[in-house]
Design goal:
Blueprint lengths: L8 H8 L1 E2 L8 H7 L4 E4 L7 H18 L3 E7 H11 L8 H4 L14 H14 L10 E6 L3 H15 L1 H11 L9 H9 L7 H13 L1 H6 L6 H23 L4 H24 L7 E4 L2 H4 L6 H4 L5 H9 L3 E15 L8 E5 L7 H7 L4 E5 L6 H4 L4 E4 L10 H5 E4 L1 H4 L2 E8 L9 H5 L11
Parallel strand pairs: 2-5, 2-6, 3-4, 3-5, 6-11
Antiparallel strand pairs: 1-8, 6-7, 8-11, 9-10
Helix pairs in contact: 3-6, 7-8, 7-12, 8-10, 9-12, 10-12, 12-13, 13-16
């Protein structure tokens, strides 16, 4: 029997990859893979890398212009992103994109208040200014749930406009949270451990009242656009889910992680349903971290019981969803040393041996697209499971292996991967002296 000769992994990967040079046709192969899919999830290996933001914007603009995508949904809080949404649609008092981004006021501000996002939302506004009717304009929405108190204010503001009596009832219910001075963690600790009663019932009752009166409220006053009811309803749902999230976050990482990603997946489904009701087949681009958009079932976290947006979307939409991961080997990144600490420009250590980052570095192609779905030989070339790096808003190089690496099977996790061998830190709009100075040169591993 003749023995089958298998090409070495590097040779196979070289055959499959598409170098990225900045040319207009860089992502032709990706768009071919996407086809008519309606959900494109674009990841990032860190929350502070310029190239990730820049290339997601390039891909998104092509999807808008060539494939009719009309919704951009990002890993940001619903009310903060909705302020940007109003601006890109020309429906807000904000006079500039800088003002529209002012809603992103909490840590980590640089994640959405940076030069790349400023440029991207400006291009969305320019696109929308040329589009008629408004239903074909592109919107910008947040999927996350950290904005408990901001969302309460948004619900009350809406009800003040359309139904003052309902606003009075809402204030009574949401008054349950007043004792915590907008400190979500204080609420979560006290309610989670039974020190004080939770506000769960009040938050759920308010959401149910809004939902029962949906038709009446959305048509009650012609001065309030119909979309504003949708905005208020999602804020009320966010309050209910955020209440549960903060109450469970002290019980265990997995339960709070799952609740957060379930909320983001539900918000994505709500966007699809809302715009589908206007006719047509809504298409959405999602910007989130790899850890949220890569299928959790192909990772060590999934084996421990975590799920994420990518898994939930795949389970519901199958081949109608395309998951794209991002990777870098070394460079710089904007991140903090601790939660709620100032943004710093930090050096990213070279990818660890045995990681996907190190493997991609050995290919010798600075930047490339690697299609996985439908690519013959990709699964064999990328086997077995390897380490994969994830840098969030905090980066701790001193404990990098423990803090930032996990094991994954990339061919099951993503449908395609974009690798940028050496990357640079995203530039915050709110520059600090520490960020401008940058981190001293890395002497690891010699210590000299």
């Amino acid at each position: 029997m003749a023995r089958t000769i298998t090409a070495p992994p590097a040779e196979t990967l070289h055959r499959l990859l598409h170098p990225l040079t900045g040319a207009a046709n860089d992502y032709d192969a990706l768009l071919e893979l996407i086809g008519d899919a309606r959900l494109i999830l674009l990841g990032e290996a860190s929350h502070g890398t310029h190239e990730f933001y820049r290339e997601r914007a390039r891909i998104t603009r092509r999807l808008i212009e060539e494939r009719g995508f009309t919704v951009v949904a990002v890993e940001a809080d619903w009310p903060d992103a909705y302020r940007v949404n109003r601006w890109v649609r020309g429906a807000d008092a904000d006079g500039s994109p800088l003002e529209a981004l002012d809603g992103f006021s909490r840590f980590p501000r640089w994640m959405w208040r940076n030069r790349d996002v400023l440029e991207f939302v400006t291009t969305l506004r320019e696109h929308n200014d040329t589009v008629a009717p408004p239903a074909k304009q592109v919107g910008f929405y947040g999927l996350d749930l950290y904005s408990l108190f901001t969302s309460i204010e948004a619900v009350l503001h809406y009800l003040d406009e359309v139904d003052p009596e309902a606003a009075t009832r809402a204030r009574y219910r949401y008054g349950c949270f007043e004792h915590y001075g907008e400190d979500t963690q204080a609420y979560g600790y006290a309610a989670g451990f039974g020190i004080t009663p939770s506000c769960e019932d009040q938050a759920v009752q308010q959401l149910l009242e809004l939902q029962r009166r949906a038709v009446d409220l959305s048509r009650r006053d012609g001065r309030i656009p119909e979309d504003e009811f949708f905005y208020a309803e999602q804020n009320a749902r966010l309050v209910a889910n955020a209440e549960e999230y903060y109450r469970t976050m002290f019980r265990g990482h997995i339960s709070s992680w799952n609740l957060r990603d379930r909320h983001m997946a539900e918000t994505l489904e709500a966007l699809l349903a809302h715009f589908d009701r206007r006719g047509g087949r809504t298409k959405v681009v999602v910007w989130e971290h790899n850890s949220h958009i890569g299928d959790a079932r192909a990772t060590a976290m999934g084996e421990e019981g975590e799920w994420n947006v990518g898994q939930l979307v795949r389970e519901r939409h199958g081949q109608d969803a395309v998951l794209v991961g991002f990777s870098t080997y070394a460079g710089t990144v904007t991140a903090a040393s601790d939660w709620d600490a100032p943004a710093e420009r930090k050096h990213v250590r070279p990818g660890l041996p045995g990681s996907y980052e190190a493997l991609f570095h050995t290919l010798g192609v600075p930047d490339f697209l690697l299609p996985i779905r439908g690519s013959e030989g990709a699964a064999e070339a990328l086997a077995p499971p390897r380490l994969q790096r994830a840098i969030g808003v905090v980066y701790r190089p001193g404990t990098e292996r423990q803090s930032h690496y996990f094991t994954a099977r990339v061919t099951e996790q993503f449908d395609a991967v974009l690798h940028f061998d050496e990357t640079t830190a995203v530039e915050p709009l709110d520059l600090t002296q520490g960020w401008q100075a940058g981190e001293p040169p890395e002497t690891y591993p010699t210590g000299i």
